[in-house]
Write a structure and sequence with these properties.
Helix content is 20%, strand content 28%. By secondary structure, it is α/β, with parallel strands linked by helices.
């Protein structure tokens, strides 16, 4: 079918290429519909995203503001039994890695950061380099859980190189870990700490190279079970994205969300990809099993690339590399860039559907400097 492409100031219709027929998928219970992901016209320019959460300074010692490694608490007399922590229905984000700072011994310092998805809760703790192992990390996580009186559904992390230590530590405290590019809250906080914590530390090393950067794999062919029958470049005003998000929160449709900037105008145009198939509920159910990162356009290949996890990429869909279609793909990426990489994926039965069966808010992942 035709697909609709979002421009910065208008929407136009061009002809698309078909996706291969969806292979037989396991029966998934159909969920109640929400409003469809129809294309919308924008009358005002899209604006860049800004961090919504307040910025907070790191922990300091009493020696004139110098940041210190936090020692493990001394052993004490066992306290009376306390109530078990509350089990939360949402995730926390975690990072455990070296920082561009050296301690009094001239050794590189490590840091543990934990926050929830809105940064209403934050924890920062420095470690000397001789305490970098899963046992020490699990002890620190236990202390955070005890202090909060709550434990998250999962810990999300984005450094694949730290997977072994983080996974073992999370297993030790009985919490699932998930490698994910959906850690934008944490990376935003990290970027703030570079300027407001690390650079003012007396042991800051401005020549330190980025530690354990993001490593993506080459895109692989998409499994048939994750294919629709056709697809479209579409767009929704932010108010429409928020409406779809409410359906996901209410568990009426499959999907996953990211925190949206509350200061962004409702008429800001958000670009997206709509996938159409008669088996929309089944496809949305299969897609829910992936940890979606984002969708980008590869102009050289004429392909949409879907990122999942922290390192996996898939050839999600193809388009004919005509001059017109290539230009439309460029403009879609330009609109996405204007809103800080924010975009969405919608799965529905056809382009005229008034409801979606799956809706994911996505954002291009930008690795923190450190």
């Amino acid at each position: 079918g035709d697909f609709t492409v979002a421009r910065a100031s208008h929407v136009c219709v061009i002809h698309s290429s078909d996706m291969s027929t969806l292979a037989a998928a396991a029966c998934v219970a159909r969920v109640a519909p929400s409003t469809g992901a129809r294309a919308a016209r924008a009358r005002t320019p899209a604006r860049s995203l800004t961090p919504a959460a307040p910025l907070r300074r790191g922990r300091r010692s009493g020696d004139g503001g110098r940041l210190m490694a936090i020692p493990e608490p001394a052993a004490s007399t066992p306290a009376a039994p306390t109530a078990p922590p509350v089990e939360l229905s949402y995730d926390w984000q975690l990072d455990f890695c070296s920082r561009p700072m050296k301690d009094e011994r001239g050794k590189k310092m490590w840091e543990l950061l934990i926050c929830d998805e809105t940064r209403t809760f934050e924890h920062s703790e420095f470690f000397p380099n001789n305490r970098i192992n899963s046992v020490e990390l699990s002890k620190a996580i236990d202390r955070v859980i005890a202090a909060q009186g709550a434990k998250p559904r999962r810990f999300k992390f984005f450094r694949s190189q730290m997977m072994t230590i983080i996974t073992r530590a999370c297993n030790d405290v009985g919490i699932e870990s998930l490698a994910s590019r959906r850690c934008q809250t944490l990376t935003t906080w990290l970027d703030w700490r570079v300027e407001n914590v690390y650079k003012i530390h007396p042991g800051y090393d401005g020549q330190a190279s980025p530690m354990m950067g993001f490593e993506a794999s080459s895109p692989r062919p998409l499994p048939d079970a994750l294919r629709g029958e056709s697809w479209a470049f579409v767009a929704l005003p932010l108010v429409g994205v928020r409406e779809e998000a409410e359906q996901v929160k209410a568990r009426r449709v499959f999907g996953d969300l990211l925190e949206l900037d509350p200061n962004m105008p409702d008429d800001t145009l958000i670009p997206g990809i709509a996938v159409y198939t008669k088996r929309a509920a089944a496809l949305a159910g299969w897609t829910k099993g992936l940890e979606l990162g984002g969708i980008t356009v590869d102009l050289d290949m004429g392909t949409l690339i879907l990122d999942t996890g922290v390192a996996d990429s898939w050839q999600y869909a193809r388009f004919k590399q005509t001059k017109a279609l290539t230009q439309e793909a460029k403009e879609w990426e330009e609109v996405k860039e204007k809103v800080g990489g924010l975009h969405f994926l919608a799965i529905q039965t056809d382009e005229d559907a008034e409801s979606t069966d799956g809706f994911w808010i996505l954002q291009d992942f930008t690795n923190s400097k450190f």
